[in-house]
Amino acid sequence: MSPTFLTIYVLIFPAIVAAVLFFLLQAFWKEWRKARRSGKSII
Q: What are the residue boundaries of the structural domains of the chain, listed by start?
C-alpha cells in the first residue's frame, strides 16, 4: 500500500465512524422520545 492511501485512510476513517455513530444516536434519540411520549419503556 502506498503512503498516500494510508494517510487518506487514517484521516477519513474517524469521519466515517463519527457519521455512523451520529446516525445511530439520532435514531436512538428519536425512538426514545417516541417511547417516552407514549409512556412505554424503550426496552
A: 1-36
**List of residues 6+ apart from 32 with CB closer than 8 A:** 42
What DSSP line would sit under 1-43, residue for residue? Answer: --HHHHHHHHHHHHHHHHHHHHHHHHHHHHHHHHHHHHT----
Give pLDDT, residue 32. Answer: 95
pLDDT of 25: 98
pLDDT band at 41 (very low <50, low <70, confident <90, very high): confident
Q: What is the pTM of this model?
A: 0.69
Q: Which amino acid is at 27?
A: A
14 with 22: CB under 8 angstroms?
no
